[in-house]
Design a protein that fits this description.
The chain is of the alpha/beta class. The chain has nine helices and six strands; from the N terminus they run βαααααβαβαβαββα.
Length: about 210
């Protein structure tokens, strides 16, 4: 094994709360019911696919141009909220693990469906840290499609089977398995039977990557 590909949101940093606030503001504006349980269904899902889930509670049908406008509104709110992120928002154990893996010679990449990946990495002080970044700006299919991870491995110049994928969403684990990667499930995905490894503490990655 020569590489690690990390999902961003929920693995490196948690912006779930910011996503929730942005979707809630959009839904409230439209008079659509939205709560944290619905928000949990959006994890690892693309923006437009997430919007379709939110609109399940809508009292009317929306035209495509209206959907684009709603998704843009949500993203504008979210991007403003992102400006509050700092390096202190990096999740526990992440910095130590990343430095440990780099010291052991592993190539490191981000594999995220988010188009806001560059901004998030900048705000948390990890801009330019990873050897490669594959995100919503260079893919056409979101997880559970493996495209984002396959491209990340290609950017690292490594075959998929020589890379670990670290994910906190079942859809992300499914994407990793579909692409032929060894998967490590953390957070909400911990215990998912399809993952190769499940860990409760991020530092356990250093035990796996001997």
């Amino acid at each position: 094994m020569k590489g690690f590909i990390f999902d961003l949101d929920g693995v490196i940093v948690s912006t779930d709360g910011l996503h929730y606030l942005a979707w809630k503001q959009m839904a409230d504006k439209e008079g659509i019911y939205f709560d944290e349980e619905i928000n949990n269904r959006l994890r690892g899902v693309s923006r437009m696919a997430s919007l379709e889930i939110v609109l399940e509670r809508a009292s009317r049908q929306y035209a495509e141009e209206e959907k684009v406008a709603l998704a843009t509104y949500k993203n504008d709110v979210y991007r403003e909220l992102l400006k509050n992120l700092t390096p202190k928002d990096i999740l526990p154990g992440v910095t130590e693990v990343l430095e440990g893996l780099r010291a052991r010679g592993y190539k490191l990449a981000i594999g995220s469906s988010s188009k806001n990946t560059p901004a998030i990495l900048k705000y948390i002080g990890l801009e330019g840290f990873f050897d490669a970044v594959s995100d919503g700006n260079n893919i056409t299919h979101s997880k559970p499609d493996p495209e984002v991870f396959i491209k990340a491995a290609a950017f690292l110049d490594l075959p998929c089977e020589q890379c670990y994928v670290v994910e906190d969403a079942k859809a992300g684990v499914d994407a990793g398995k579909a692409g032929g990667f060894i998967t490590i499930a953390v957070g909400d995905a911990c215990g998912y039977e399809k993952s190769d490894y499940s860990i409760r503490h991020f530092e356990e990655i250093l035990t796996i990557a001997k």
